[in-house]
Design brief:
Among the domains are: 119 residues, 2-Layer Sandwich (Uridine Diphospho-n-acetylenolpyruvylglucosamine Reductase, domain 3); 114 residues, Alpha-Beta Plaits (2-Layer Sandwich); 85 residues, Alpha-Beta Plaits (2-Layer Sandwich). By secondary structure, it is an alpha+beta fold. Strand 8 and strand 9 form a beta hairpin. The longest helix has 14 residues. The mean pLDDT is 95. The chain is globular, with a radius of gyration of 23 Å. The strands form five sheets. Strands 5-6-10-8-9 form a five-stranded antiparallel sheet. It has a four-stranded mixed sheet with strand order 1-2-4-3, with helices on one face.
């Protein structure tokens, strides 16, 4: 690799408008957990896809690494290189426009730098819903969300970012523009480059715009916080709910008692609709106007009580109460951050294996003297299973055993046919996990694809796959 130094920047600047290249700011070199402080002195801020093409082509010709930066909310170090040859940082924050909205087709075309909350707002103005939803929606950008195949709380009904994308515009490693912003629901014309780029974390191409699916907005929501005896009963409750409201279950979130205790400890001013419970389910239905929302939710609650799946619950009777329910759920990551995790795990499991995994993992980790917080998107099998210091101790006390805790968790996930990365991606944090748990045939194919599309290895070097 060649460094992105002043000499390279001077030559590149001659091909671009003034002020496209700048000295990198601290925000370009950090990530939320502070584990991967980045290197790199120069950041490029292009205004359009043509400028991205010029930048990437120049990097490819010179052998300069390119690290794409989106909203900076990723949690696996995919947006920073911590050592080696300084790369060129490429931020698409200036490319933040909505190019078009086709309400009758339920399609919106957004540039890579568009903030998710802004896409939500434009869709809402058109009477439509873009359902990708996560806590960082005020900062996360479309390019990063597509590049990491982001998930969130609505995957159960609408799918991941991959399921919500019809087409992409992207710049390939040699600077050639892939004009794939299609609005088609069916297109069987060979290899699906769109799906190859989605989830590749900027290692195969730089996403510059996306054609995204919109949906009719539900006429009404029915939301409840239900106390359940445990994860097994929560899964039975999911089955019961889907039987009552097939295709209308928007969210089904599992919340542990430890989550509630962390919220009370770190965010004392947050209103908690339920203050004491060992396991909760946050259930939300998105319903058409012709369905009686309260009647449907009450029918689910009554049957669940009769079958011993629910011991108590609170049904939201107003929009404000619904918002309080979700504020509690969405504040859990902040509470976790304030406590300070020893080891965080973004895992997914077959639904039928979740209860057994939780029980086995809790038993296997008893000897570490830690507190566990298990919560997440139970409806799609995605759990955040995180380890925290015992009361009176701090994260630093566990530095020597943190890796061992993660190995116990990931080994059990693998044994239960799950994934060590459900929605956060691989980045640089989980490259070794991919090598350890990944299928050999898949890894060989991934390396071959990387070599074919990025033979010089300039695109986000070291992310997802180890540098050769």
């Amino acid at each position: 690799m060649t460094p992105a130094d002043a000499t390279f920047a001077q030559g590149l600047s001659l091909q671009l408008p003034a002020d496209t290249l700048r000295i990198a700011e601290p925000r370009h070199l950090t990530e939320p957990r502070g584990k991967f402080p980045g290197i790199g002195r120069i950041v490029a801020l292009p205004r359009n896809v043509r400028e991205v093409s010029v930048i990437v082509a120049a990097c490819n010709a010179a052998g300069v690494g390119v690290v794409p930066i989106s909203g900076g909310t990723g949690l696996v170090g995919g947006q920073t290189i911590v050592s080696g040859v300084p790369p060129l940082l490429l931020s698409l924050e200036r490319m933040s426009g909505i190019r078009a909205i086709h309400a009758a087709e339920n399609v919106i075309i957004a540039e890579a730098g568009a903030i998710l909350a802004d896409v939500h707002a434009v869709a809402e103005e058109a009477g439509r819903l873009f359902p990708l939803s996560l806590a960082s929606e005020g900062t996360a950008r479309i390019g990063g969300l597509m590049s990491t195949n982001a998930g969130g709380v609505n995957v159960l009904r609408y799918g991941t970012a991959r399921d919500l994308c019809l087409g992409l515009e992207a710049v390939m490693a040699d600077g050639v523009i892939f004009h794939g912003l299609r609005r088609l629901r069916k297109d069987n014309t060979g290899y699906d480059l769109r799906n190859l780029l989605i989830g590749s974390e900027g290692t195969l191409g730089i996403v510059t715009a996306a054609s995204l699916k919109l949906f009719p907005r539900p006429a009404q929501y029915a939301t409840a916080l239900l106390q359940v005896p445990g994860p097994s009963q929560a899964l039975d409750l999911l089955t019961l709910t889907q039987a009552h409201a097939s295709g209308m279950v928007e969210g089904f979130e599992l919340i542990s008692g430890q989550s509630l205790r962390f919220l009370k400890e770190t965010l004392p001013d947050l209103r908690l609709p339920v203050r004491d419970a060992e396991w909760l389910v946050l259930l939300e239905l998105g319903l058409p106007a012709v369905v009686g929302a309260d009647a449907m939710l009450e029918a689910i609650f009554v049957q669940a009580m009769e079958e011993g799946l629910v011991t108590d619950g609170v049904l939201a009777r107003s929009t404000q109460q619904r918002r309080e329910f979700w504020a509690m759920r969405e504040s859990i990551p902040e509470a976790n951050r304030r406590i300070g995790a020893i080891a965080s795990h973004d895992i997914s499991l077959p639904l039928g294996q979740i209860a057994a995994f939780i029980e086995e993992a809790e038993t296997a980790l008893q000897g570490f003297g830690i507190r566990l917080n298990c919560f997440g998107h139970l409806g799609d099998g995605n759990l955040h299973f995180n380890a925290f210091p015992a009361v009176g101790r701090v994260r630093g006390d566990y530095a020597s055993v943190a890796a061992g805790i993660t190995r116990v968790v990931h080994d059990l996930v693998f044994a239960h046919e799950g994934s060590f990365s459900a929605e956060h991606g691989v980045g640089r944090a989980k490259v070794e996990d991919l090598e350890l748990y990944g299928d050999p045939a898949k890894l060989a194919a991934m390396r071959a694809i990387k070599a074919a599309l990025d033979p010089k290895g300039i695109l986000n070097p070291g992310a997802v796959l180890r540098r050769p």
